[in-house]
Write a structure and sequence with these properties.
Elements: H1 2-20, E1 26-34, H2 41-51, E2 61-67, E3 70-73, E4 79-81, E5 96-98, E6 105-112
Parallel strand pairs: 1-2
Antiparallel strand pairs: 1-6, 3-4, 3-5
Helix pairs in contact: 1-2
């Protein structure tokens, strides 16, 4: 359900930026979403479609770019993308800790007319 609030914030931001630029319509919004953010692309799209009706963003294409979760091994220092199962380092089998990469959610770019 947190997709509602992040989509609302994203829409408010793009509408404000489009207004500042004197744009009449937003055609595309590129979003960057980390795999650890727990944000579901389809939910963002659904809320966006509903919330953008009657605004210059209505009908804009949302483009999602996913950032994989990255971990650093406590034993050997290897940095790696999170495996499908578990958190173990693929080099030494040690426990990996999150580096912070993969928690992103931001607007990368906006295209307007």
């Amino acid at each position: 359900m947190h997709e509602y609030s992040v989509t609302k914030g994203m829409l408010d931001t793009v509408l404000s930026e489009a207004e500042k630029a004197g744009a009449s319509r937003i055609t595309e919004i590129r979003l960057v979403i980390g795999d650890l953010s727990t944000i579901i692309d389809e939910s963002v799209q659904m809320y966006f479609d509903i919330m953008s009706k009657g605004t210059p963003a209505h009908g804009a294409k949302l483009v999602f770019r996913r950032v994989p979760a990255q971990f650093r091994c406590r034993n050997c220092g290897n940095e790696y993308n999170k495996p499908a199962k578990g958190f173990d380092c693929p080099l030494c089998g040690g426990l990996g800790l999150p580096t912070g990469k993969g928690k992103e959610f931001y607007i990368e770019s906006i295209e307007v007319d």
